[in-house]
Amino acid sequence: MSPVEVAHRARDQALRTAWSRRQVRPGAVGSERGSTRSARADRMFTTVLPAGTANRVPRDAVAAILASANQLLRGEWDVLGTVRTDMVRPDWFRDPVTGIRSDPGRYAFRIDHRDQGQTGNVKQVWEISRLQHLTLLAAAWYLTHDEAYAQRVSEQLRSWWRENPFLSGINWTSGIELGTRLISLAWIRRLLADWPDVVGLFEGDELAVRQIRWHQQYLASFRSRGSSANNHVIAEAAGQLAASCAFPWFRESQRWRRRSARLLEREIVRNTFPSGIGRELASDYQCFVAELGFAAAVEAEASGHPLTPVVWERLCAMADSAAALVDERSRPPRQGDSDEGRGLLLDAPVPNRWPSLLALADALVGRMEWWPKAPADATSTLIGALMGTRRHIGGRPECRQSRFADAGITLLRTNGDNEIWCRCDGGPHGYLSIAAHAHSDALSIEVRYAGVDILADPGTYCYHGEPAWRSYFRSTIAHNTIEVGGQNQSAEGGPFLWLRHAQAREIEVIDDGDIAMWTAQHDGYSSLNPPALHRRSVLLDRASRSIDIIDEVEGGDHEVRLAFHFGPDVHVELDGSWAVLAWPDAVVPGAARLELPHDLRWSLHKGETEPIAGWYSPGLGRRIPAFSLLGRGCSVPGTPLATRLEFLEPDKISQTVISRQAVSWYVSDTWRRKVHGIRAEAT
After folding, report:
1. Which one, 162, 290, 382, 675, has least CB within 10 Å?
2. In terms of Cα–Cα distance, which of 469, 354, 339, 489 is closest to 428?
3. Which of 463, 674, 641 is nearest to 550 (CA)?
4. Is 396 inside a domain boundary?
């Protein structure tokens, strides 16, 4: 930490201690309701949706919303891989996974939310207190005017306000939770605008008004700084801005609005590369930050306090880069951490939110012709209606980009049906000194065939409570890259801390018709004796629909392990240094041959725990067995390790493997001829 950050943290700690006198304990407040149909004249909610907006929501989106809302009325809700059945009267403090219930009366700043013994799995607890299931119920009321939906929202909002008074309990321990909750409250109030009892639920209820103010007082006094100023500070600024615009009822509202607008503008720029890629290099968080930014920017626009063009330009860049990153099924990369966080929930939840993000961006800034199609949904329709008119942003890319040099991300891909999509990682380790959401994945690749994970990034699985699993899913050996000397490329210091960062850089990227090639290296093994450097080249041959991977380890003899991890649809059979891959039950069936480096000893793993190997996480809190190949051996300077992945077209799948000698010749000779030819033409 810098001296400035240390000073800020000391100040925050002193303030937290002093604020213990301001804690409001459970039971000290009731639901202090005013009139159910009126409120003080200085409390007005004016940023309502235009008349007729509900009729514009696509029918399939309406049907999905109502199905999810009815599930909630029955008390069921999927929370990070766990189906909760207590959602009629949720316990705001109990973790359903461990059964642990944190103390509702404990002063928030004396709770260690990373201690599972105190809080259970805190992500499970926090998730429902973001109140995003209530925005979905409010959306169902907006679309149907069915009283059951509004009554459930009312019951649970009053319950939350009553049981979570200022600074009491786990739900006041993290600013990101308060920020996302404020965005939910603004939209619940907006969606229920025509419900007869809405004024009594919000501006006519003194406890509701106090809660909205308490949230903003907290965010105005405490924010993520320094090494922690990642997506958390975006959520804090976005929530403060949205609330100060939607609920401008307090003497501090104008000051809160101006400060949060400046903070959001500064941190959106800091948290993203000029290309629009998130600096955390965790794909899921790019979507989360973009959702938060768009929600706050539209709230400001609707209230008559538009943000500067700088914010809109960067948000637009985030959308353009998102459109370029996705595969043919609009699936994003799986790079870095993912906790499935949403900035706002107005549609039925789905595993892949990126099409919804693109639909929202289309409604707000317009889509480029090369974007994949993203059908309108409730989110894009409602937020677009609140915005009114699209923003025009100039200087946008006229064609789909395949390289984002500032982020070190390069895509090698084919055109047409059954796309081969390959993401190559040659960028920074992560964002800020702790790189909280980074993985030790330098020079790793992801490969998909028609959107099916073939060489897969295994994902995240967990944040808290299972340190061995947290370490594995972030480790080098859990990614499609090479481990040298039995250590991670970057040094782990805790579940959200990296002490040493591998520095990767792209050396060259060439795309010449049938051939696309990427070469990069990193210094993550410079601490070994002797120091080692890993260099990797990846070549996509579009004509033969094959990928060649060449790994070189410079700097003496070292023990190495080369890993390849496969998606859950892929079945793998290993025969020496050959593997046959097949995914007959996937959305698009296929098969491939994998020629592995002959100098390594190969083994096949699936669903193992001692040690951990062969796993894939489809989402936080979920893991399923999947095949992994591990090659062990010793690096020899000047002797590259060559891997070839050849996809088989449907008319060739029935054929047996071709001669190993032919493939070995192809990798050793044709690879070099192609590379030399491409480089010669490029120069």
Report:
1. 162
2. 489
3. 641
4. no
Domain contains 42: no
Reduced to 3 states (helix: H, G, I; strand: E, B; else coil), residue 126 is: helix
Task: Work out how many domains the chain is built from and give that number.
Answer: 2
DSSP code per residue over 192-234: TTTSTTHHHHTTTBHHHHHHHHHHHHHHHH----GGG-SHHHH
Give the C-alpha separation, 176 to 238, whole Å. Answer: 10
For residue 611, say if its preceding peptide bond is cis, omega within 30 degrees of 0: yes
Q: Are 539 and 517 in contact (CB under 8 A)?
A: yes
Domain hosting 542: range is 403-682
3-state SS, 241-295, equals HHHHHHCCCCCCHHHHHHHHHHHHHHHHHHHECCCCCECCCCHHHHHHHHHHHHH
Secondary-structure breakdown of the chain: helix, strand, coil percentages, each rounded to the nearest 5 = 35, 20, 40
pLDDT at residue number 662: 37
Whose tokens are 């090698």? That residue is 412
**Pair 382, 499 in one domain:** no
Q: Answer yes or no: do 357 and 500 share one domain.
A: no
Q: What CATH number did the domain enclosing 613 receive?
A: 2.70.98.70
Give SS3 for 468.
Answer: helix
Task: Identify whether residues 72 and 130 lie together within a single domain.
Answer: yes
| In a shared domain, residues 299 and 413 | no
Q: Which two tokens stand for residue 261?
A: 């607008």
User: pLDDT by residue (tens digit) across 454-504?
Assistant: 999 999 999 988 999 999 999 999 999 999 999 999 999 999 999 999 999
335 domain residue, yes or no: yes
Do 604 and 499 reside in the same domain of the chain? Answer: yes
Q: Does one domain contain both 89 and 233?
A: yes
Q: Is 673 exposed, middle or buried (0-12, 13-18, 19+ CB in 10 A)?
A: exposed
Are 257 and 306 in contact by the 8 Å Cβ rule? The answer is no
Instruction: Report the candidate in 408, 412, 430, 409 with the shortest Cα–Cα distance to residue 422.
Output: 412
Does residue 483 lie within any of the structural domains? yes
- Beta strands 641-648 and 546-554 are antiparallel
Q: Please give the average per-residue pLDDT across 270-294, as a whole number.
A: 97
